[in-house]
Amino acid sequence: MLDLTKVIRDVPDFPKKGILFKDITPILASPAAFGEVIRTVAGWAKELGAEAVAGIESRGFIVGAPVAAQLGLPFVPARKKGKLPYKTRSVAYALEYGQDAIEMHEDAFAKGRRVAVVDDLLATGGTMSACCRLVEDLGAQVAGCLFIVELGFLKGREKLAKHPVRAMVNYAGE
Ligand code: AMP
After folding, report:
1. What pLDDT, in 10s, does the model give residues 81-110?
2. CATH code (residue 142)
3. How many CA atoms lie within 13 A of 150 on its CB side?
4. Ligand 1 centre distance from Cα of residue 108 (Å)
5. What pLDDT digit, counting tens, does each position of 136-161 carry?
6. What is the number of structural domains in the chain?
């Protein structure tokens, strides 16, 4: 198994002072690393019985879409407010300052469908937990929450306690 911590690039003070940004673009630039990410996340989605894959804008698309294609499953984008063209359902969530909302098309899932929700990174868990609520509001079930990176010290996992959570790399104490 490849050590992804050697591939992920730390960028201090982006997008603002005090944030250590985990840049996954070097993973995407490495066919070996990206291939391993897609195979691993696809393996989890399969093991969890996923029948559809949802990706969170925008880095969740980069991982979620190839996983869905590899497994022969539908892919559903969860987008920032105002981007989707058809009728949408939305869930608001708190940011450090203010709030944001995430949206999906209201006909995104067949009733009861098991959905693997994918993003690149778990920080506080606010984004993923909003997306899970949205999946449930739309009549589907969350099969699991799948990430490349987890910032364990932010305890985002606690916000997702009712769902299986998987991450390839955990920065537990930074
Ligand atoms: P959160 O809602 O706090 O779990 O934040 C997760 C979202 O913000 C994900 O879509 C990440 O891509 C992004 N994010 C938060 N913190 C970082 C970080 N330190 N490095 C890279 N992306 C981050």
Report:
1. 999 999 999 999 988 778 999 999 999 999
2. 3.40.50.2020
3. 21
4. 24
5. 999 999 999 999 999 999 999 999 99
6. 1
